[in-house]
């Protein structure tokens, strides 16, 4: 009596759809690992439940850990009202700056060397 290989059984579970799903999930994890440089994983859990007539009910569960790219953070300040603002509410603003027009002399003239 020869032993049937695990890969042969795997290709028969759920009429081959489990094998297809595992292949897709593995590709997803591999691509994410390459893109992010981070660790990923794929886990297959197979449960076998014996029946009364010698049959086995086989269920499966696939779990993946797909790494993600790091995301940038934001710096914001809380206002006295409890809102978030990109501007520090305690920071004074400079509203009275004078813009130098074309006809006005600049503050400093650099000489060519």
Structure description:
The model has no long low-confidence stretch (mean pLDDT 88). The chain has two helices and four strands. The protein has helices spanning 6-12, 17-36; strands spanning 41-50, 56-65, 77-78, 84-85. The chain starts with 5 loop residues before the first helix and ends in a 28-residue tail after the last strand. The longest helix is centred in the N-terminal third of the chain and has 20 residues, at 17-36. A two-stranded antiparallel ribbon has the order 1-2. A two-stranded antiparallel ribbon has the order 3-4. The chain has a domain at 6-65. With 113 residues, the chain is of the alpha+beta class. A hairpin with a 5-residue loop joins β3 (77-78) and β4 (84-85).
Keywords, please?
two-stranded antiparallel ribbon; 21% strand; alpha+beta; 113 residues
Between the first and last Cα atoms, what is the distance in angstroms? 94 Å
Range of strand content: 15-25%
Order of helices and strands: HHEEEE
Percent range of helical residues: 10-25%
**Largest sheet data:** 2 strands, antiparallel
Principal-axes geometry comes out as elongated
Spatial strand arrangement across the major sheet: 1-2
**Which ranges are low-confidence, i.e. pLDDT below 50, for 5 or more consecutive residues?**
none
Radius of gyration: 32 Å
Mean pLDDT across every amino acid position? 88
How many helices? The count is: 2
Count all strands and give the number: 4
Q: What class, by secondary structure content? A: alpha+beta
């Amino acid at each position: 009596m020869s032993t049937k290989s695990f890969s042969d059984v795997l290709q028969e579970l759920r009429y081959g759809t489990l094998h297809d799903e595992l292949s897709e999930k593995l590709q997803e994890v591999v691509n994410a690992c390459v893109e992010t440089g981070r660790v990923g994983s794929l886990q297959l859990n197979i449960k076998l439940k014996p029946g009364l007539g010698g049959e086995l009910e086989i269920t499966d569960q696939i779990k993946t850990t797909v790494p993600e790219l790091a995301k940038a953070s934001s710096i914001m300040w809380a206002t006295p009202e409890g809102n978030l603002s990109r501007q520090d509410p305690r920071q004074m603003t400079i509203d009275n700056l004078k813009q130098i027009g074309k006809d006005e002399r600049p503050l400093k003239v650099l000489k060519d060397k």
